[in-house]
Write a structure and sequence with these properties.
The structure is a single chain. The protein is of the alpha+beta class. The protein has 13 helices and 14 strands. The strands form 3 sheets. Strands 7, 8, 9, 10, 11, 12, 13 and 14 form an 8-stranded antiparallel β-sheet that branches. Strands 1-2-5-6 form a 4-stranded antiparallel β-sheet. The longest helix is centred in the middle third of the chain and has 36 residues. The protein is globular, with a radius of gyration of 24 Å. The relative contact order is 0.13.
Length: 422
């Protein structure tokens, strides 16, 4: 039988396509396009240019050269070394794929590492566990009903919409800074699974502005995602401090409880002397808590706006149940299912915003056409080689990195490293 989530997705998509066909007849061709009921594109010019002009106003006070240098440096770091977004929200992320334990390595570095590890796995030199231990970057498509639930997918849609919008507006705003007009802009989607936004610039105008302007415009989207990721991380730190005082908006929301004094809807803020703002933090600190106080757990719980302490007596046999928790990205089951907690909605929204901005920055910085990284590489190569040779080298690099992406996805499933995100 088809998953209810898949059926819901198909019904939702059918409604959207029906509305789009109606709007196409009202607004005329060009504004809304539907391709065989499988894909949808919405585009415009005047509205897009007005939005970009407003977005470019804050940049008017920054000298063009200073802006270009900053954009290119941040983009270069993201492409070649590490993505400068603090991973404060995800303390359980493998440190083998991180730079200085706090930032993820660049997609270029991780995909090349995946190639080396993939060869070792295929030749039976390492196991699936060995892949993870040595820093293999797992990649899996986010498919509603298969790899993620429909509920989580709705959160992702919101996060992607914001992230892609910021990315594309940044391209257009920097283009406006260099007096480059936009032909059109908009967004596209297919079954709400493949989606994205776009800003079409006047290519001839862009080329006439020179290498500095082109590199700045191509770098802007990735840099915007990095800055949004940093902003989200800072916002999370601020909300964590607020939670420590008032008991929300972060913490662990109780979805099921067979324990006296803890009710469904309560928010667990503190376990013993440790503040817990998400399930990752609890999973990380739980073994140490149990070693220090093996028979009694002291919880600080927010019950309907009032903070109170709850003590849980844990038998010696129950300690094993605390250690062997059942966890996913969004749910944690303790004490054999007697206590089930999840992250707050605020945390989940911030988490997916951070993850998707991190992902967009990582992927778009890859030296592969038609991604931003491919355009940056081709622009630089055209200064060193003639245009034809630059295109050939760029296309070769593009094929290599798209194949590395495909290999990483295949190995993720072949080595059973995929997870279902509930």
């Amino acid at each position: 039988m088809l998953s209810k989530d898949i059926i819901a997705l198909v019904v939702t998509w059918t409604i959207i396509v029906t509305i789009a066909v109606f709007l196409r007849k009202v607004l005329g061709r060009g504004s809304v396009e539907v391709y065989y009921g499988l894909a949808l594109i919405v585009r415009g010019r005047e509205v897009v240019n007005r939005v970009l002009e407003r977005a470019a106003k804050p940049l008017s006070k920054i000298p063009s050269s200073a802006l270009s240098i900053a954009l290119i440096i941040i983009f270069g770091l993201t492409m070649l070394f590490f993505i400068p977004i603090p991973l404060v929200m995800i303390p359980s992320i493998p440190r083998s794929i991180c730079f200085l334990d706090h930032m993820m390595m660049s997609g270029t570095v991780l995909l090349l590492r995946n190639l080396v590890l993939g060869i070792s796995y295929i030749t039976s030199r390492i196991t699936s566990i060995g892949l993870i231990q040595h820093g293999f970057l797992t990649l899996q498509p986010l498919i509603p009903g298969l790899t993620i639930s429909f509920k989580t997918f709705m959160l992702i849609l919101v996060a992607i919409g914001i992230s892609v919008l910021v990315h594309e507006i940044a391209h257009g705003a920097v283009a406006k800074k260099f007096k480059i007009p936009a032909k059109s802009g908009g967004f596209f989607t297919s079954f709400l699974i493949l989606f994205g936004g776009f800003v079409e610039l006047e290519e001839n105008e862009l080329r006439q502005r020179g290498v500095e302007a082109r590199l700045a415009v191509y770098s802007a989207g990735v840099v915007a995602n990095v800055l949004l990721g940093v902003l989200i991380a800072l916002l999370y730190i601020l909300l964590a401090q607020i939670t420590n005082i008032v008991g929300s908006p972060l913490g662990l929301v109780v979805t099921h409880s067979d324990i006296h004094g803890i009710h469904t809807g309560d928010i667990i803020v503190k376990v013993d002397d440790h503040y817990v703002h998400n399930i990752f933090e609890l999973v990380n600190i739980l073994p140490n808590i149990i070693l220090q106080r093996p028979y009694v757990l002291k919880l600080l719980v927010n019950h309907e706006g009032t903070l109170r302490e709850v003590y849980i007596n844990v038998s010696k046999e129950g300690i094993q149940g605390l250690l062997n928790v059942k966890a996913s990205l969004s749910e944690l089951s303790l004490l054999g299912g007697k206590l089930v907690v999840t992250n707050t909605l605020v945390y989940n929204i911030l988490l997916w915003l951070l993850v998707l901005n991190l992902t967009l920055a990582m992927l778009n910085a890859l030296p592969a056409y038609p991604l931003d990284g491919g355009l940056v590489v081709q622009t630089i190569l055209e200064e060193l080689l003639d245009q034809k040779k630059a295109q050939i080298v760029t296309y070769i690099l593009s094929v290599v990195f798209w194949l590395l992406l495909a290999l990483s996805i295949i190995l993720t499933f072949e080595a059973h490293l995929y997870v279902f995100v509930s």
